[in-house]
Amino acid sequence: MDIDERIHGALWGAIAGDALGVPVEFTSRAQRLHDPVAGMRGFGTHGQPPGTWSDDSSLLLCTVEALCEEYDSQRLAGLFLAWNAWGYWTPHGTVFDIGIATRSALTRLQQGTAPEEAGGAGERDNGNGSLMRILPVALRYAKAPVAEMLTMAHRISALTHRHPRSQMACGLYCCLVKALLDGDSPQEAYRFAIQQGQQHYATPPFNDEFSHFARFFQGRLVDLSPSEISSSGYVIHTLEASLWSVLTTPTFADAVLTAVNLGEDTDTTGCVAGGLAGAAYGLLAIPADWLEMLAGRKEITALIARFIPLTCA
After folding, report:
1. 263-301 confidence digits (pLDDT tens)
2. Were 29 and a residue from 51, 180, 240, 263 both cysteine, which residue would form a disulfide, CB within 3.0 to 4.6 Å?
3. Domains in the chain, start-ordered, CATH in brackets?
4. What is the dihedral of CA 129, 131, 136, 142, to 10 degrees?
């Protein structure tokens, strides 16, 4: 499997995982055990047709577009504001979901705050709103030194989530994706991310966050039971749940459905897990009927075609 196949798999996998989770967002794990998601369905929480993706994929696609050129934080901020104002990179022309921290950051951007100072930096600003869209950074800078990739992840996270914990979660996720693109197994990628994280986050302000990532750095997420995995919108929960879903399953579909059926923040857990599983198993591993139902396929295909050559530069 070449890297193009894995990059396509990661991007389409994230969008598919998002769309699988949209109809059941905010539902409980008990509800998902009673009525598990087994494929694309529609309506539900947001009343959207099957194949509709959320703000997760919208902001991910804005990030892809921004990274098709030399990175400019003002340009990325402009794309985020265009999404919020008139539905740019939405599946059906309207925004139907937005996180609290992201909304606050966009308000600051609109008021003229410098893009990389717009994200909240408080303890309570550690939702998963930057983790859900950070995948393109890992893909664009996969060939760069790890330190450069992490710096870009931190900068791009900061537009909406500036706290070191959120930035660190984004960086660790990028390390996972980087290793998967190189052909590592999910467990090997996990070991790589632990190694790189311990090396690159050993100094302030990141070393103060190590206690929050204790389970991740112990390297034993795969051994945890479902009851020990949380799936809320907290960035640590999303990082753990998405990786756990990939580590404990053998296929793309199993990984993403496991993530979605954890309940609660189903679209984001599905999106983040879908990026990992797509990088691990490639585009051909994604069920064709899921891909066929996704909204905006033509436009997304054209954007990815612009982006792919830059990932190999």
Report:
1. 999 999 999 999 999 999 999 999 999 999 999 999 999
2. 263
3. 3-311 (1.10.4080.10)
4. 160
